[in-house]
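Forwarding the complex inputs:
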Amino acid sequence: MSILDSVDWGKLERDAVALRRDIHKHPEGAWTEFRTSAIIAERLEKLGWKLSVGLDNIDVKSVMGRPDDAVIDSHIERAKAQGGNPAWIDRMGKYTGVVADMDTGRPGPTVALRFDIDCVDVAEASEASHRPAKEGFASVNSCLTHACGHDAHTAIGLCVAEALAKLEPSLKGKVRLIFQPGEEGCRGAYAMVQKGVVDEADYFLALHIGGKVPSGVLGLKSLGYLGTAKFDAEFKGRSAHAAAAPQEGRNALLAAASATIALHGIAPHRDGPTRVNVGVFNAGTGRNVIPDHALIKAETRGETKEIADYVYARAMEILKGAAIMYGTELSVSKMGEGTTADSDDALAEKIGEAVRRLGIFKEVRDTAAGTGSEDATWMMRRVQERGGQAVYMALGSDIAAPHHNGSFDIDESAMINGVKAFAAAVAALLS
Amino acid sequence: MSILDSVDWGKLERDAVALRRDIHKHPEGAWTEFRTSAIIAERLEKLGWKLSVGLDNIDVKSVMGRPDDAVIDSHIERAKAQGGNPAWIDRMGKYTGVVADMDTGRPGPTVALRFDIDCVDVAEASEASHRPAKEGFASVNSCLTHACGHDAHTAIGLCVAEALAKLEPSLKGKVRLIFQPGEEGCRGAYAMVQKGVVDEADYFLALHIGGKVPSGVLGLKSLGYLGTAKFDAEFKGRSAHAAAAPQEGRNALLAAASATIALHGIAPHRDGPTRVNVGVFNAGTGRNVIPDHALIKAETRGETKEIADYVYARAMEILKGAAIMYGTELSVSKMGEGTTADSDDALAEKIGEAVRRLGIFKEVRDTAAGTGSEDATWMMRRVQERGGQAVYMALGSDIAAPHHNGSFDIDESAMINGVKAFAAAVAALLS
Amino acid sequence: MSILDSVDWGKLERDAVALRRDIHKHPEGAWTEFRTSAIIAERLEKLGWKLSVGLDNIDVKSVMGRPDDAVIDSHIERAKAQGGNPAWIDRMGKYTGVVADMDTGRPGPTVALRFDIDCVDVAEASEASHRPAKEGFASVNSCLTHACGHDAHTAIGLCVAEALAKLEPSLKGKVRLIFQPGEEGCRGAYAMVQKGVVDEADYFLALHIGGKVPSGVLGLKSLGYLGTAKFDAEFKGRSAHAAAAPQEGRNALLAAASATIALHGIAPHRDGPTRVNVGVFNAGTGRNVIPDHALIKAETRGETKEIADYVYARAMEILKGAAIMYGTELSVSKMGEGTTADSDDALAEKIGEAVRRLGIFKEVRDTAAGTGSEDATWMMRRVQERGGQAVYMALGSDIAAPHHNGSFDIDESAMINGVKAFAAAVAALLS
Amino acid sequence: MSILDSVDWGKLERDAVALRRDIHKHPEGAWTEFRTSAIIAERLEKLGWKLSVGLDNIDVKSVMGRPDDAVIDSHIERAKAQGGNPAWIDRMGKYTGVVADMDTGRPGPTVALRFDIDCVDVAEASEASHRPAKEGFASVNSCLTHACGHDAHTAIGLCVAEALAKLEPSLKGKVRLIFQPGEEGCRGAYAMVQKGVVDEADYFLALHIGGKVPSGVLGLKSLGYLGTAKFDAEFKGRSAHAAAAPQEGRNALLAAASATIALHGIAPHRDGPTRVNVGVFNAGTGRNVIPDHALIKAETRGETKEIADYVYARAMEILKGAAIMYGTELSVSKMGEGTTADSDDALAEKIGEAVRRLGIFKEVRDTAAGTGSEDATWMMRRVQERGGQAVYMALGSDIAAPHHNGSFDIDESAMINGVKAFAAAVAALLS
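Prediction (whole assembly, four chains):
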């Protein structure tokens, strides 16, 4: 008999679904997860976790891609209007996220678990074939959808919190639960790391639901997240009447166009894949006016930190040169950044043992391919640099459509397995 | 003693200012001049002119750059809310502009006068140093301003209508007053010409206020309007996740960027100036998505029809080629077009004589430089092709800021001189 | 005791060095290997192989990247002047390469071995530290060097011919030796394949010396050759005086520049690496003349045939579109092409056994990374499509400098191991 | 009776044709006019002019677009082989051009006349319809032709020298004849001006034969030469194997391509025509190597000095920015430069009077359109800045083909009129 038997898993399975659906219905984008954070705080407080919220966990100088204050304020209003506890929201100081601590008082290592809580900027599908629409928990916030499963991550985290609260008497050491804002666009993790949020962790665990891993399967080490930088580049020139005084203009649109084409031509790298994309380009105001302003939203990626750094450095050269070519001024704002990190074999092995013992997975794979980028890598790197170990798992779930698609939906029954896997891992590490 | 002495010029001078200020306060953009057209119609009906409005004067197939119906409807609502006579507005059939006819019943030639009535898409200055702001007739319509003097043109036209009604017993032949929508962007004249609005004219007269000509001066032949084409080019590609499946995208943004840079590199022409501008560029939706859509708003110009045609033809080659380069689909919509035309010397001489006799101008110049483009050239060309004569004059007025600038303002005292010049010219041609 | 013991390996080891040095000293580029082919023919004839040379083995329509006739003629002259047997050269019909056949008369499979014989277009190092310079066998042909080891391949092939002639009584089936022209730039193999040169082969073997594999090691399956296309694109426009009549020009230089930039921006592929390079760009004749001609020399690559095809198809779209953009005419000449192919595991295993039994390699690896592209892949594909098996091996040799560098040199002692490996493999397959 | 009657014009008319044909047959390009300079020096010495040659008249630091020493040396050899007086050539110090002075000893102003002596880099037509070919005086120097009439200018200058030597007793003041090298590409005048060659001139005269002015006509003021800069831009990057290590390259070809496209997109200028051309582009060595070197030969022009400066400044920004974009190094060499200048009305009037009195021209026009650029403008500007007056005339001549075309030929009978015009002008100014 395992210590895990003391938990009422049936209740948690029902809770996970209810929580996920509530969060799914009220999605909040990066840095605006006020309602979500308030729900987390309220629930964890009741379970006895020691909390710090919002600004307390954020290094403001390191924040990337956060909307301006007016937008933040309007999202705070919405969060309160949609039932977010105003007392908790006011305590957050206009920043989101929650960190919850449990100290058993017994000597032992510290385990940190990380759950990301933000949604994606896409409109949710409204067809009857889309379960959230059919069953009434589709997004009520326009152009926002939990289309990447962070609603499930949050629900899993809340259930893990309840399970661990129950298990506490059997544990030693400390547990920290990190509910991170702004994973999308790799915006939130870095500011938490810079605040020292994972500095005490001996072990760090995180997971992602879905991807290419089907229901019933757990991947112990999710591989291949690309290092990435997200940035906005703004060119400022000088407007002029395009027919009457063309020589007086400094054409920001042309600078941006020239930069864009060159960015897409950054040479590939011998050692692994690279990616560059200028996804958004907006410039100019009138047909007969030489544009004095252009904005491009871009990202660079590389398989390793070295490759990612190479692509980013080349991108900066290109932007700088293009600005000079057209006599314009350039400003680049980093809107997000993800690094690369490898899961530790030793820790993966320990967790693998604990998880296999649960007998709830059809298959526990050693590795599983991740896709795109993931900013938990900042946390993994920091923990590893300080001598700790980290693992990023892939929690299998059949999905109704690709991630970031408006018809995305998960297999809700996978969530409880994730809760159990975390609980078992912590129990293995702290008992 | 002249027949012109029968007119009460003092009243008309006051009327011109009052009318101009009312129109200035309620500016309406191209194809949405419903209130302005209603005011014109109401006033001219009282003066006994025979009217046709809106759709009756427009060849729908030839319309360029008109907003879509939803926008038109909302502007109709605004026009009525701002006092536009609903009966007249409803008669317009969703198109703007007024044509007014006087037939003396006595054999003689037909003179057509053209007045343009639309405003510019810029926000009006609000500083106290800006007279419309100080004296309470600044634009109440956001981002719309009569910053090109068409308010004055309209007021002049209305006063000319009153003067000619008074002079009618002394005249022979016919007079047609054309209040044209959508001169900005060269959008309106062509559709009127194609409807035949100037087909009966033996003489055609138009003028522009301001420019580089100071108060007290009249230029008989305004020269140098560039032939121009305004067009929107849309590239449709295929979106794809920029990191996960870049090979599946067809990048509309890159097609548009490549086209834009090449458009600005169209070779100049031996025979005269050319201009190209891509003034607006919007593409893409998300940083990590290969953009499947890009829109550029562009214009080409040339000093003569031949040069303008050369530039436009090269632009079309470039757009077509760029679309192919990136595997995208192109659609080009012509949003406006102006041609070139020369004033007739013989007619200019006749008018010069009549105007000099008035003794109201410090100086009557033979020629004055026009700037940019002007779609009255379509009317001039048509009249000349059918054996008539045309003149485009420059009515001097000191201006507070360049045309199309939010601080633009005219010297209102210049207007009555414009009214007298038109009246004298018509009297000379029809008596 | 092995049948291989009947060969005088000591003599062959000395022969290999002497042959390699003679060929090294007289390098000949793609499609001009007349002296080299004559030497091969002369020697093989003496050994009793049945020969076909030059045009007999080439499908002329499939030839890529061959110099024009005047260049061919001058190389024929040089070949004769440098000791190439004129009778053999005249029999070649202006095409190079040799195919040699042995038919044991005893029923059995057919084994084809391929050796490439051309050099690289680089100047050889002249420093004393460069052994060919020091020992007097450096290239006497300017800007031509055996800097990719094909001199060694040829020498190995000649020694294999001698060994197999000796072994013939112990063998069954048939052996074909293919001395292929123009591997550099992937120019020669395809035309031989199209002539049917490998159509009868049940087994196909080839190898490359050097690469990343050190002396003493044999890699059984050399992996990762990229599919590639080499092409020249020529843009023809119309020249004009750049100041006096710019509108009359059609700028071929700008078309090529625009194409070049876009080629380098072809989106990467999810499934594996891609490469694009425009390595040479020549356009225009005079500073003040709009260029009517531009030539670019380019190549595309992809890890698999599918990826390579994707990149090439995109490149063709870009070239076509760029030509249209600038009103120019495009002609594309394919100058070379390599495909991809995998070695067959079953054959590799058989050869591995035979080679390991020799006991001459420190290490026999299953796989070894190839680099760049290799047109033996055409032969492998054809053999496999017809039901045969193919293997491409990596023969380890320490190298003095990277391939294609003027200081490249091999470890000559590796050659005899290559000879033995081939002989052992053939013996294993045909006895 | 005029003092001009003392000259034997019949002899000079024959001399002009003979001299022009000799020079035409032996054309020499910019900075290599050694034979031409020697012939000038020999002849003028005999006529009693005081001479300075080559280096004595050149400010070496200001020289633009001169070939390197090896090329100069080979042209010196050719000049001697083609009959150039070796003594004179050796005195030139490897620089070309001749300045000849006459001092009457009587007080009076100084008149400077300028004749340009270089040819164009085009091949001469060989058809029988081309008179120089038919009559045996076509160019014997490959790819060099007097296709711009400087052969005639030189012949005129030599005959003017003889006429003025005859007239000397009737004159006061001083005369300077300037035989300038390197007008093509605007390479020679500036270095002479910087040496002070025109610093003492009160009056400066020059002319061009042909253009758009027919035989029998003289234009007193040739207008509209564009200010121009000729420059070579070299980009240095880093080469790398395009497939094996693309990330290590710094692509000079792409930098040059990007710069080229942007150069052609420099915005036009309100105040007058501009021109930009990249006429030559050479980059790269091998198809599969990232190019580490690119060279473009370009020119910019503008109607006034201000416009020309604007275009050039923008070009330099573009080159600098493009170099940075691709991580390459840029070096720009100015290869030529022409400015703009206006002829003085007062001087033109005086000359007009003198020339009309000759009665040899069907028509003496006030102005005539020049085309392209002309570096005598440097001399005109210097003279005018120091208080003198300058005139640049157009000497009418029917031409067989446009300037710079291999079939260009002049009407030789026009030359003697040019000689007389110069002589009459000098006589009018100095008597």
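Residues 322 and 362 of chain A are 54 Å apart (CA to CA).
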